[in-house]
Amino acid sequence: MNYKEGYDWGKQSLETAGVSEAELDARLLLEKICGTDRNTLLVHGDRLLTEEEKNRYQDWIQKRAQHIPLQHLTGEQEFMGLTFLVNGHVLIPRQDTEILVEEVMREMMDGSRILDMCTGSGCILLSLLHYSNDCRGTGADISQEALAVAGENARRLGIQACFLRSDLFEKIEDKYDIIVSNPPYIQTRVIDGLMDEVRLHEPLSALDGGEDGLVFYRKILEGCPEHLVRGGSLYFEIGYDQGEAVKELMEKHGFSEVRVTKDFAGLDRVVSGLWYE
């Protein structure tokens, strides 16, 4: 089997299985296994696959056809120009969340103290620390398995950060200049209708935001006053239809200058505000 034949088989197999972006996934899996790039398919399609490459590719395609996420097969995902380790214990970093990081970066100061609540893979906190100077950061999560992933990502990237197992603010003692969070925000009744890649393979605890999707926003807002300095900032990622609801919650809890930021698709994505009380 040559490179082009392998790709064609992989693409057809994924299309038959109803995998979205079958062409892209078939190519990316082949490139990961062979250590090639997108030009190889165009220029060196007659390159013969080794027996090991063929067997591994067929195995990965069969698993992807079962809707196992591509990132769980490759073990990594790009985010903010960095490569993060991912597995079934953490949410796969998504491009939408880069909007959250960019909003924090627009206003953060060198030397800021940052708390990333529900840190998961650590992609938000580690990106902020990577692209800033002299900032200190803590990532909190209730999942020890997720914290292990975050710690390994910090090690790989050479970034110093503290990762703490905590049920929200339970073990948090310090005050911070910035609190940032991408909490679970999907309504419980919606979860059964999610794509198989998400519903079956990403951690439910990182998805389920309760009956109205707002449970964790309320809990985090209740704990913020003890852990934000005066003039500190809070940033939330939100679902596309939660902008006004989360904005009202933040204002109700005493935050000022609350604003909703849209993503590149024009959908509400981030709510942020300042703490002065």
From TrEMBL:
Transferase is among the record's keywords: yes
Binding site for substrate: 182-185
Reactions performed catalytically: L-glutaminyl-[peptide chain release factor] + S-adenosyl-L-methionine = N(5)-methyl-L-glutaminyl-[peptide chain release factor] + S-adenosyl-L-homocysteine + H(+)
Keyword Methyltransferase belongs to the record: yes
A GO molecular function held by the record: peptide chain release factor N(5)-glutamine methyltransferase activity
Entry keyword set: Methyltransferase, S-adenosyl-L-methionine, Transferase
Class of this enzyme: transferase
SUPFAM superfamilies per record: S-adenosyl-L-methionine-dependent methyltransferases
InterPro entries: DNA_methylase_N6_adenine_CS, HemK-like, N5-glutamine_MTase, PrmC_N, RF_methyltr_PrmC, SAM-dependent_MTases_sf, Small_mtfrase_dom
One GO BP: methylation
Binding site for S-adenosyl-L-methionine: 141, 182
EC identifiers of the protein: 2.1.1.297
Domain Methyltransferase small: 97-189
Record-stated family: Belongs to the protein N5-glutamine methyltransferase family. PrmC subfamily.
Known function: Methylates the class 1 translation termination release factors RF1/PrfA and RF2/PrfB on the glutamine residue of the universally conserved GGQ motif.
Protein name from the UniProt record: Release factor glutamine methyltransferase
Organism: Eisenbergiella tayi
